[in-house]
């Protein structure tokens, strides 16, 4: 509509805050963002753009604000890569120093230069550029600036800001001796159970699965996000919609493995056994995982174990953990206690404000439950540590590879305790594409770029530290979100959103610094509509991209794996695609037809799937990887062997493919229509596959052996 066209000043204002005023759609169209969307996004950033006069004032403020402050709110740079801007009042020079993490101080000389100036509030300000020395060590430092009057007089302003020096490039992934690259398993942890499980996969199962994979030659085990969800039913089944990305899900704790469980008296042991019995009986049920039932059982057992007094040594460990995690842990534990306190009852608005008097009062009243949830995080941290130790002991060069979700639940812990970090009235999503013609809304609030900078990127740092404390790698889902995100104003369709840019140098830099310190590998999920330069940028920084066999196209056919990028985690499929056995049997088409998700006749979908499958099978036969009479198992092995011919640094093998599972874990475009993220691991006969039996599973053995044999060889 012509009356929703933005004025030139509104366009300038939006662009000054990283808001896209136009973009190229998936379909190749140039889309101009309407004024209403730009105003809504600006309002979420705390900027009034409701009238032309307000836009003029906000634009002036946006142009003046950097000049008002002596230092920027924070500064992130590679060694020697950026120059620090300092805005000095006329009549003063400036002294700049850096306080380093090791306690030493470095002078940052201000070289001779021709500074630019701006008249502001009746005074001239000068912008000088202070180079960051190339030998400044990596780390979390602080920079200080002091105005000194020229010719003597009273000192001027002083300012400090976080100074973060980040790696230039990540090293190549570690490998086993004698190999130039590695491979690993990919699994949905909740789906992988043993005879000792409590109805779903847990951290003890994680350790065992890692040990099994490592004994087969695997270097990593990629699992779904294990971020914490709700602690009251209904528990969100999607691991990609967590309550927090900072803390772990106690849902995955194995109660029996807690040291204090061995100190229970007879009544306590009976209580734990009684809690476990009903959910353990479902371990062989291949139909459904009931998180609510599992958590109800585990919580009863965990409360019983929590009542056992800690030994002095254990108490000291808990105290050290609590001190290290600080206030964020206390806030998360309080959120959990509030969830329980208001379970089944409406929560007053004041309870959603962490700074309200009501919340302060409840923090005191609910202190025992807060201590319980703090203890749970300590236990979860220890069990994840044990899993990584088991992975490394099995011979893995990398170990556990965690997955970082794009965002958090709008009513979750992070959105509550860090609300100033998130944009109110906005949701993250995706613009329209050929698969979702209306676009997608993920119901997650986006981070505010300015708030992150003001916080010195500490929320991002702390989140990454937790995930990498006991891990060898991190996969970042939708890594483009560290560059730009699709913001959708509340009440509007996804198509009415726009992109908002982030300081990717800072975001990626902080990610790399924490990974460098943890000795971890980084993988960015860069599938879909990603600007080409982003892939080049990530590769130049040593961050691996992702490749899925079915998406690798070249001309009219499939791209030869030799043409793949080297800086990759290459796989046959992903958790958003059907397992290969299901794909070969057209079950993905049948499922979408049953759910009413097809936009074309089912016959047309089947014909297209058949043509795609025939082209792939022809490629496999041309390479001598498949006989004419090959069956399902042989085809799956050949597909996985095919991607080993690529130069990819890492190869991922889906556990569902290794056991012949046919059902999809997630069907995009559905919410309640399909049991997403609730499917237990099963074989081609529809019976549950337990960890206890995996070591004797012929399909698993054959596929892992075939991939392990090929990895490290020259591509063929």
Q: What is the strand arrangement across the widest sheet?
A: 19-16-13-12-11-24-23-20
The whole-number mean of residue pLDDT values reads 95
Total helical elements: 21
Describe the biggest sheet?
Answer: 8 strands, parallel
Radius of gyration from the alpha-carbon trace, in angstroms: 27 Å
Strand residues, percent? 15-25%
Helix content: 25-40%
How many DSSP E strands?
24
Principal-axis shape equals globular
Distance between the termini: 57 Å
Query: Uncertain segments of ≥5 residues (pLDDT<50)?
Result: none
Structural class: alpha/beta
Topology record:
Blueprint: H1 8-16, E1 22-24, E2 30-32, H2 35-44, H3 52-68, E3 75-77, E4 83-89, E5 92-99, E6 105-107, E7 116-120, E8 123-131, E9 139-149, E10 158-165, E11 182-187, H4 203-215, E12 220-223, H5 266-280, H6 291-306, H7 312-341, H8 357-365, H9 367-393, E13 399-404, H10 413-417, E14 426-430, E15 440-441, H11 449-454, H12 458-468, E16 473-476, E17 484-489, E18 498-501, H13 504-518, E19 521-524, H14 532-540, E20 545-548, E21 553-554, E22 557-558, E23 568-571, H15 580-584, H16 587-594, H17 602-622, H18 632-643, E24 650-654, H19 655-659, H20 691-694, H21 698-710
